[in-house]
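agent: user wants the structure for GrpE protein homolog from Rotaria sordida. delegating to structure tool.
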Amino acid sequence: MSLLSNYLFVRQVLSRTSVFSRSTFMNASRLSSVFRYSSTNTSSQEQKQNETTTTTASPSSSNQTAATQSQSEQKSDVDVKQLLEQNTKLNEEINEFKDRYKRALAETENTRVRFNKLVNDAKTFGIQGFCKDLLEVADILNLALVNTPKQVSTDITTLTKDFHNLHQGLVMTEERMQKIFSKNGLVQIKPNEGDKFDPNFHDALFQAKIPEKSSGTIIQVMKTGYRLHDRVIRAAQVGVAQ
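agent: tool returned. relaying tokens verbatim.
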């Protein structure tokens, strides 16, 4: 392209000159032919070079495309394999969690059954120890009855002795029973006359005006009360001065 430009420039210069020789024109014509041949030859070489480049590049591009497809297929195979492995692992974890859940449910059910049994046993046999202790009271009462004659003696000495034995048996029964109550947390509420009335532990059955007694004090104990540990199960029944 640079030769053609030079040719056009020379021809333009010659055309503007008013007088030039024939030899000069011939030389210009020859130069024009040379320029045309050179331009044609250059274009032909460039075209051949482009064709060669295209021909050479085509197999390379095809090979590159094939390689890219192969890599994509290999990558897809790897991705599928990884997904399958992850799926297998997740299924194993799911099965493990299901197994744990089933075992937890079974253990919870067993615990519930055992707890219900303990509750029922506590209701049924919770007072077993208390009842066993009361058997001693029953034994003492039975012994007192055995030692008390069924017929009243007319002899004053014998009668006095029988009464004494009965009284001793009742005293022993009372003492033993109170020990059993105390052992099981059952304590007497037994106020004395003159004590201050306490509605938390006492139940006023009646009120009376007594000049020598202060208002609100206990003047008579009708029945002993009881509390189980810290809970009052029966308040002491008393009379209170107004």
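agent: one observation worth passing along. The first strand starts at residue 186 and ends at 189.
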